[in-house]
Each structure stands twice: as structure tokens, then as C-alpha cells.
Amino acid sequence: TGQTSPLINIATRLACENLGTKQALFLPCSRHQWTYLLIRCNICAKIVRGARVSNVQKISVSLTNQQMANVRAAIEAGEYATPTEVIREAMRDWQAKRDARQDESRRLRQIWDEGKASGDGGPADFDALRREARSRLKDKNAASPNGE
Fold it and tell me: End-to-end distance of the chain based on CA atoms, in angstroms?
């Protein structure tokens, strides 16, 4: 696009200010994230290596050959700059799914509690329930054109 992303400008300036240097390099950016550009330029690569990041922890992740091939393919296609970006997006997706499952569990617990609080449903007459179910099935079969 020929224009520098405001996010890149801000991130680069902050990285430079944190290390006490006035040097910063601003590059045109299309869709790559600012970390990719910081690592690609010589001045900012030193900043990234020397910056103190307190909210990041390093871990080791084992991937199958196919998974790593997929990661490399995504990087080569320009979708991501580094394997770390791929893993971070996967973690965000996992967290979103986990949050959705937890929300659904909370909703089901609430419905369960509301049902229990609504009082006793009374004794169940299973013979009457069977007769009603058979009657409904008979009516449904009689209404269908094939008698199924």
C-alpha cells in the first residue's frame, strides 16, 4: 500500500523509547504484523532482542511433521511472519472455543437450576406416557402418504 501502519509507528517508537534510542525505521506495510517488520530491520532487530517483555513466557511445543509443514506453508504464503504468530492465533481460537463451552455449561446449569426451582413435576404415569406416545405415532403414520 505504500503507507506505514499507525500500529507499526507506535510500536516501533515505544520499542525505541524503552531502550533509550532515538533511532527508528518506518517501513511500508501491507498485512504483515509489526513484529515482522521490527525483526526485519537492523535497527529494530536489536531493539526486539533487547526489549524486556514481562507478559510473555517461552514454552516448547511439539508438532507433527504435517502440522509444521502447514505452519511453514502459511508463513511462505505471507499469512504469518513467524511460527509464534501461528501458535498465538491457535491459542486465541482455542480460548474462544473454551470460553464458548464454559458459557454453554453455565447456561445449561442455569436452566437446570431453574427447572429444579420450579418445583416437583409430580409423579410420572409411564403407562399413560406410553399410550400417549403410541397414539401420536399412530396418528403420524396415518397422516403420512406412505403409511410410514
Answer: 64
Burial class (CB in 10 A: 0-12, 13-18, 19+), 25: middle
C-alpha cell at 136: 401420536
Judge if pTM exceeds 0.85: no
Contact 33, 82 (CB under 8 A): no
Residue 115 phi/psi, 5-degree rounding, is -65, -45
CB 23 within 8 A of CB 41: no
Averaged over successive runs of 10 residues, the pLDDT of the chain (148 residues) comes to 52 52 44 44 44 71 94 93 92 96 96 89 89 94 75
Q: What is the biggest distance separating any 2 CA atoms in the chain, rounded to whole angstroms?
A: 85
